[in-house]
Design brief:
This protein is an alpha/beta fold. The chain has one domain: TIM Barrel, CATH 3.20.20.80. It has twelve helices and twelve strands. It has helices at about 1-10, 15-20, 50, 90-95, 120-135, 150-165, 185-205, 215-220, 220-225, 250-260, 280-295, 330-349; strands spanning about 30, 35, 55-60, 60-65, 75, 105-110, 140-145, 170-175, 210-215, 235-240, 265-270, 300-305. Helix 4 packs parallel to helix 5 (about 120-135), helix 5 runs parallel beside helix 6 and helix 6 (about 150-165) runs parallel beside helix 7 (about 185-205). The longest helix has 18 residues, at about 120-135. One of its GO terms (biological process) is polysaccharide catabolic process.
């Protein structure tokens, strides 16, 4: 029954989205950038969401509706208050059509003076644009509460509003805490109770879409979380790494968590240093990619932005939000685009 219900949701997504966001009662389509939300009813049968449907977790593995392991590959947008120009339908369309992503991450800023903590509706609108664009393209979308410190009241308000609007869609994934800090932060004492609160609030509205939780030390203490895991269904754990900084030791800890039964998803990684800058480390990046692909662990790269740092996919000063030429891409951007396109081509064979 669950599989049939979720499959129907994709077919009926246009009407449901219109009602969820308080849209046109006369049946007219809402607009996001270039195409109407009614396009959701015409998503090609070959898209990731059409192929896999609603995701769930079985035996420590993220699977599709037919029980097959699913590996999502994609890009994260940058902090939403500092890279707002890319929170558009055009950007998502281009990432799907040219970069061949199967997932995109909306990093909704929850730190600083110009974030969702002060601008709730503005940031809800950004998340909504990305969610609707992802749904119209038939890809998955992670709504990431992008914070390093706890803001439970604000996080609960934001993510339950997302659940009310979009929890009926099969492509939605929640990430309630991007990267808890390391010093003075304990999984069982601090972070687990936070997640229990947010998960309960989401589940009261959306009973089954994936929730991917963070752990201390910038979402790297997955081995510690595995000793005292959260209860509930369809709860996975994010793992963040930066290849030039984090290598065999972190991968061993991640493997320990995986062997203990945690379902992992790499919702953020870089092929450079943990600062987001520095040289590209291809040897370490390839080791991480090999491990992730071997174990069907999804990955999303940081990030779509034009900042002057080596993790940015776009060169500083890039004005276009889509249609980027090779000259618009940084070395990291060219590597990620090629990797995503090659993975998509391999899956099609």
């Amino acid at each position: 029954m669950r599989k049939v219900r979720k499959a129907f949701r994709l077919i009926a997504a246009a009407a449901a989205l219109t009602m969820a966001v308080g849209g046109c009662s006369d049946g007219q389509s809402l607009q996001t950038a270039s195409r109407p939300i009614s396009d959701l009813a015409r998503v090609p049968a070959t898209t990731p969401v059409a192929l896999h449907g609603s995701l769930s977790i079985t035996n420590g593995q993220i699977v599709g509706e037919q029980g097959e392991p699913v590996t999502l590959r994609g890009m994260s947008l940058f902090w939403s208050q500092w890279g707002p120009q890319f929170y558009t339908r055009e950007t998502v369309d281009w990432l799907v059509s040219d970069w061949k992503v199967s997932a995109v991450r909306a990093a909704i800023a929850a730190e600083g003076d110009d974030s969702a903590l002060q601008h709730f509706e503005r940031e809800i609108d950004k998340a909504s644009t990305v969610i609707e664009a992802a749904a119209a393209n038939g890809i998955y979308v992670i709504v990431d509460w992008h914070a390093h410190r706890e803001h439970p009241e604000e996080a609960e308000r934001f993510l339950t509003e997302i659940a009310r609007r979009y929890g009926h869609l099969p492509n939605l994934i929640y990430e309630p805490f991007n990267e808890p800090l390391r010093d003075g932060v304990d999984w069982s004492r601090d972070i687990k109770p936070y997640h229990q609160r947010i998960i309960a609030a989401i589940r009261a509205i959306d009973p089954d879409n994936l929730i991917i939780v963070g752990s201390p030390s910038w979402s790297q203490d997955v081995d510690i979380a595995a000793l005292d895991p959260l209860e509930g269904s369809n709860i996975g754990y994010t793992l963040h790494y930066y290849a030039a900084t984090h290598k065999d030791d972190l991968r061993a800890r991640a493997e320990q968590a995986r062997q203990a039964g945690l379902a992992l998803m790499i919702t953020e990684f870089g092929i450079v240093e943990a600062t987001g800058n520095g040289p590209i480390d291809m040897a370490s990046s390839n080791a991480w990619w090999d491990w992730a692909e071997e174990n069907h662990i999804s990955w999303l790269n940081w990030s779509i932005t034009e900042r002057d740092e080596s993790s940015a996919a776009l060169r500083p000063g890039t004005q276009a939000v889509a249609g980027w030429s090779d000259a618009d891409l940084t070395p990291a951007g060219r590597i990620l685009r090629a990797r995503l396109r090659a993975a998509a081509a391999a899956e099609e064979r």
